[in-house]
Amino acid sequence: MTSAIEVVDATVHYGDVLALDGVSLTVEPGRICGLLGTNGSGKSTLFKTVLGLTRPDRGRVRLLGMDGASARRKGLVGYVPQTEQVDWDFPLSVHDVVMMGRYGHMGIRRRPRPADRDAVAQALARTDLTDLARRRIGALSGGQRKRAFVARALAQGADVLLLDEPFAGVDKRSEATITDLLRRLRDEGRTLLVSTHDLAQVPGLCDEAVLLQRRVIARGTPAEVLHPEIVMEAFGVHVGEESGSTWTR
Ligand SMILES: Nc1ncnc2c1ncn2[C@@H]1O[C@H](COP(=O)(O)OP(=O)(O)OP(=O)(O)O)[C@@H](O)[C@H]1O
C-alpha cells in the first residue's frame, strides 16, 4: 500500500538555523496523526516541506506516492493554515473562500461550473456552514473560520489534509465540533496530519502521534507519546487525567 505521507530523513535550514534535523515520518491512508511540539519545534516547517513549498537540504517527501508539489498541483492535498496568518479584513465571504478550493479545477477565467458549485455546497454542508455562506469570513468566530478552511480543502477534493493548530483560538464547543468533523473525514478514508501544542486534544482525536523537537523525539500511539516522562522533557509540564489544566503550556 502506498503511504499517504512519507517523509524520509528531511533536514531543513533557514540560513544558519537548523529547523528540521533528519525527520522521518510515515502516515498511512485513513489515519489521523498528531504533530506535537512546542513553539519553534519545526511543525510549520515540516508542513511546508510536505507541501513542497520548502525544499529540504537533505531527504525526501512523498505524498500519495508523488512529490509534494505534484500532489498540491493535482489538488490532492489541502492545507488549513494557522488562522493568525490570514488577513481577515479582506472582503471575502465564506462561500468565496470555499470556492477557492475549486480554482485548480477551473479554467484560467475562474468561472465556476455546476460541478464547482455543487462541490462548494457539499463542503459547506459537511462543515455546517451553509447558513453562514454569505457572511464575511472576518465576521466568523475562530472555530467557524477553521471550519471554512476545512471546507475549502474538501471542495478541492483533497485526500490528505494538513491542519496547522486547528484548535488554537477556538472555544470548547467548537473544539468538539472540529474533532467530530475531522474524525468523520478520517472515517471516510482521508488522511490528516494535525499540528497542535494542545496535548489534551490528542487522545480523543489522533490514531498516532509524533513529537517533534527539530527532530522526532517520540512517535507511537497517543498514550506512548504522551508518556509523562517524555512530555516533561519536551514541554516541561506534568500530564495527568485528573489535572487537565497541566496538559498545555
Ligand atoms: N523564514 C524563516 N527564517 C529564519 N528562521 C525561521 C524561518 N521560519 C522559521 N524559522 C525558525 O525555524 C525554527 C522552526 O520554526 P517553525 O515555524 O517551523 O516552528 P513551529 O513548531 O511551527 O512553531 P510555532 O508553533 O511557533 O508556529 C524556529 O527556530 C524558527 O525561528
Automatic annotation (TrEMBL):
Stretches assigned to the ABC transporter domain: 5-239
UniProt-recorded name of the protein: Metal ABC transporter ATP-binding protein
Entry-linked Gene3D superfamilies: P-loop containing nucleotide triphosphate hydrolases (3.40.50.300)
UniProt keyword Signal present: no
Membership in a protein family: Belongs to the ABC transporter superfamily.
Pfam families per UniProt: ABC_tran
Annotated keywords: ATP-binding, Nucleotide-binding, Transport
GO molecular function: ATP binding
InterPro entries, per the entry: AAA+_ATPase, ABC_transporter-like_ATP-bd, ABC_transporter-like_CS, Metal_Ion_Import_ABC, P-loop_NTPase
